Amino acid sequence: MNDLRAVEPLINVLQDSTRAEFVRQSAAGALSRAVEPLIATLQDKDDKVRQQAVLALGYSNAPEAVEPLIVALRDTDVMVRWYSAWALGRLNDLRAVEPLIATLRDTDERVLADAAVALGVLKDGRAVEPLIVTLRTANGGPTRQNAAWALGQLNDLQAVEPLIDALGDAVEQVRASAADALKKLDPVAAAKAGLK
Predict the structure, then answer these.
(1) 145 near 177, Cβ under 8 Å?
(2) CA–CA separation, 89 vs 76, rounded Å?
(3) First-to-last CA distance in the chain?
């Protein structure tokens, strides 16, 4: 595929779960053939072009997209950073762990929330302590909610006490996510905390 104008419609097809499976698979195949031009497009001056390139690379399943997406985590455009965190989680490559941990210091809550999810998907123990800090200190409820979820995915008992503390969070979704993670991680501690 040489015409990058086709990227956005292909992404729309991929995201439309009402489309036939073979149509969505064809769209994914077309995007996978555009990896090199999409990577080059990450240098474009237009924020929206870079955003679409990041989304397409997330759907590409291409290992060669990981390093450029790691660089995109530091883009000046918040949407590019947000989509890059999502894309790196979707690509599920451990090279992204440390850069995603660093991204937990981003100033935008959407970026933080998706970085936390990506770290939960990657299931690497290096993320436990940074996610605990995020659970305890993030301003946004969605970020704390996603940090709690991610800690449940990491299956590390260091997270038990912070998750118990999060059961008292002011945001209902954070409490629910912490409860689910705690039940998964330590059913005995969950029962002692009054969870069923």
Answers:
(1) yes
(2) 20
(3) 53
What is the crossing angle of helices 128-137 and 109-122, to 10°? 150
Q: Which of 149, 182, 153 is nearest to 165 (CA)?
A: 182
pLDDT in tens, 99-138: 999 999 999 999 999 999 999 999 999 999 999 999 999 9
Could you give the CA distance from residue 58 to residue 87 in angstroms, rounded to a whole number? 4
Q: Which two tokens stand for residue 108?
A: 């935008």
Closest CA to 14 of 121, 112, 95, 90: 90
CA angle 174-175-176, nearest 5°?
90
Which amino acid is it at 101?
Answer: I
Global confidence as pTM: 0.85
Domains of the chain as residue ranges with CATH: 1-91 (1.25.10.10), 95-196 (1.25.10.10)
